[in-house]
């Protein structure tokens, strides 16, 4: 049976605080822990945080019985408390007391403002982690406001598992909803301030990170990576709990939890906590998908079939050297078919893939981790699609399994057009297509996107449009000259042995003219002529072709 606080008890505890303070001024005092959260029993200590001006001991604890209840007072000097609020100076050992439910005994406004200040700082740190962990997808994230609360709890519990009992007690039982709302009130106030400051924006019931904040975060020189700052800060509470003799609150929470639950270890309970990634979503045409999604290929296939009971489904492996690629065909009762491409991204971490990295070494950053390539493919494809660009529509993404489902586009590999031109078996329309590809690349650059892997194979020609495929190396604000150089010099490697460079020159001229007609940057064309890029392709493109294409870039880039 839980016990309740009453006004007489609170007044008597405040008198105790005044007795402890003596001539020192009380900055603020509040109750926290099981009594405030509604799950205490008569054996449980009543926990008090007492912030004092000019407290010479800086940190100390005091115990006394009040109204037959054991009261544990945690005292801290005001300046130390405020440094813990502003910078996590003492591992948020004190700041944490007012980020969960608490009851003010004095100076409630001071406590409220410091609670919001702490939560605002923590949100900014978590946003920084999201941006650095997902530099492209963070532009698309739809964040549930409870993400911040669950992420903070999980991180604290991982570093100091006994805290897990407190969190489970707090968010289960009769007072769970009230406690959750109390915690979230401070986060919502902090979020509103960050919206005003153009860090966050509200969108259809979710939170989005503004482009401005993402770019600022990427450019910021980090004094210490966020993960290390977090670990450093979270490692302090257990040490402080020992020295301050305030660890009884964790013992009480473990005892109270095990009264009504199985005797799980703290470490086991950590794994049972709410996954914060369930509260960060990636938008798709079929609805938002959480970062925690673990769907396999068959489960995803069922999700995108409108009526799985009547539609027939077949999955066929269609190759893929760098990724596992499948074709999903859905046949409805009417006989109508719909096709999807399913990619599962591999890590290129072994020596087998080393040449891919060395190939572009010094000229372009080549991403090898499957998770990073998945993130780029999703984020850049979504961004370009939303801006009217011809790319396959993305229907689903499973970040944990590194799977993405895209629209299947029927068309002709543009490399076949390049081969026809270089083999002197082409029509004027083929050079027009080269011009259109140049326009397509310029339009991407004008949107701030570099394709990263701009080979002819990654363009698909349909009856009415040219699509850009395989955006797993694409990035915002990247190297435009690399896109131009890769397309032109890589095209040249299809030149027949002993052939002249005339056809490759024609390709370069038409591509660059299309690029310039669509508003492309001349300076990027000029840069593509440099040895920095020609040396990368000298391994497999004939020297006379490289030289001819480089000369075209130099002339048309003036």
Q: Tell how many strands the DSSP assignment holds.
A: 20
Quote the CATH topology of the largest domain: Beta Polymerase, domain 2
Number of helices: 22
Oligomer: single chain
Summarize the helices and strands and which ones pair or pack.
Blueprint: H1 7-21, E1 26-32, H2 34-37, E2 46-52, E3 59-66, E4 69-77, H3 78-87, E5 102-106, H4 108-133, E6 142-143, H5 146-159, H6 163-170, H7 176-196, E7 200-203, E8 206-209, H8 211-219, H9 226-234, H10 236-243, H11 248-260, H12 266-271, E9 280-282, E10 289-290, H13 297-304, E11 312-317, E12 323-331, E13 337-345, H14 354-359, H15 370-386, E14 394-398, E15 403-407, E16 412-413, H16 414-422, H17 428-446, E17 449-450, E18 459-461, E19 466-468, E20 475-476, H18 480-492, H19 502-517, H20 522-528, H21 531-537, H22 543-556
Parallel strand pairs: 2-4
Antiparallel strand pairs: 1-2, 1-5, 3-4, 6-9, 7-8, 9-10, 11-12, 12-13, 13-15, 14-15, 16-18, 17-20, 18-19
Helix pairs in contact: 3-4, 4-7, 6-11, 16-17, 17-19, 18-19, 18-20, 19-22, 20-22
